[in-house]
Amino acid sequence: MGKPTGLFSNRTLFLLCTVVIVVFAAGIGVPASAVPPPPTVTGLAPSQGPVSGGTTVTITGTSFTDATKVLFNGVAVTTPFTVNSDTSITATSPPSTTGSLVGAVTVQVTTPSGTSTNSLYDLYTYTADPAPAVTGLAPNQGPVSGGTTVTITGTSFTDATTVLFNGVANTTPFTVNSDTSITATSPPSTTGSFVGPVTVQVTTPFGTSTNSLNDLYTYTADPAPIVTGLAPSHGPVSGGTTVTITGTSFTDATKVLFNGVANTTPFTINSDTSITATSPLSSLGTFIGPVAVQVTTPFGTSASVPADLFTYVGTPITGIGAITGTPQVGQVLTNGTVTPASANVTYQWNESVSINGPFAPIAGATSETYTPVAGDIGYYLEVNVTGTGSYTGFATSPPAGPVTAAPTSRTHSAGTCYWCGAGTGESSSGYTGPASTPVPADPTSAPVVQPTVSESVTAAATPSPAYTQSPLPTNTARSGIDAVPVIGALGLCGAIFLFRKNGN
User: Fold this and answer.
1) pLDDT over threshold 90, residue 42
2) Which residues contact 257 (CB under 8 A, 6 or more apart)?
3) Which pLDDT belongs to residue 308?
4) Residue 471: what are its φ and ψ, rounded to 5°?
5) What does the alpha-carbon distance between residue 280 and residue 237 come to, in Å, rounded to a whole number?
6) pTM
């Protein structure tokens, strides 16, 4: 047999491989600390707490360094926990299952190597929370109308579900400030008028606080309301003014009265110190002056004081138009349109020799119309209107005038015609006689036979030196005998008479 050719013979290689296999199979060369053991829980402090949770628990054990979860009753807590060291964790107990389970549950720790196994050392016992207790109220009294903010002190308030006044759950929301403090608002007392002490209690899932002298709240009678001001403090007799009433103890207001009469228009209680109301129509709709505004509650009606006076004022007269009609003796004049048109007014006509006044009242001229008389000739006229009833103020019309004399009338009898004579200064208007009739030079001369006619004659201030009759228009609608045909006929008869006379 020949010699081996390499560094090691086949036998030597076989022996080396066998040694390596045995060494690895025995775990030689693998560090024992490379895979940490799962955690273990060896104790809890404290080991019990209320079902509401919130207890700080220190967990002791081993292999906590890489802890990822803490479980109570198999459920991971959502509240953060603290890994103090490899042997200590601080966690907060959650509420028990359903928040009311009483009894022992396991507390476990989870790491990447696993979850601690259960043992007698990791048991945490949930205990029933004690029923709440009320130890004080601040303040411990308030008005029967309610609305007082009350701080309730005591214990075991954390899970409070109800606050009761006189055994009735308060419907107004309350605030749990802490396990020892609640802020609530007192409701109105029974029927809103009961005066005296009632109990204040707190209810949680673990019971209702028992009554004691410490939980008594006393309802006191509200004072009667007081009115201290009005804004605005005046308005028209027609009503409709929005008035803000200020004062005290308005919360339970049932009525607002103007002049002792309850207002039928709804009002608004803005606060205990403010009411908004609408003024009604004044008495009969015409009364002008101050009236008391009062507020009524179940505890009385405010006393009348100067601060509650509301003054009704009339609707003002704002103007009057120009006088209508002709300012002439015998002509009816009418006052102008009054503003507002619905106003009730009285009238007084005045006169002055100057358009700028001063004007003096005309005795007895107190109606809507006035008819000038001879004594008013040359005067200017105006009319004053003054508001009455629910209307106030006055207005004066623009002046009219001056007043002039009235024209005179003359009627001619049948067969006569009294012409406006020379030198009289009279001017004729309205004559409807024939235009061809000659006018006498002297009005006293013998009249010319004329039909019945009428004319208006106005006397001149200064007689004219001579009289000239303008051509007269032809009367197209007259009655009686026309003068022209009569004269023509007379002339023809005269000619025939002379012809026959000369022919003789």
Assistant:
1) yes
2) 263, 292, 293, 294, 295, 296, 301
3) 94
4) -55, 135
5) 8
6) 0.41
